[in-house]
Amino acid sequence: MNRIEKLNELLQQMPGDNFLRHALALEYIKLDNDSAARILFESILEDSPQYVGSYYHLGKLLERNGEPDAAIGWYEKGMQQAKAAGDHHSYNELMAAYEDLAY
Question: Which single residue of 12, 34, 71, 89 has CA 20 to 30 Å from 96?
Answer without folding.
Answer: 34
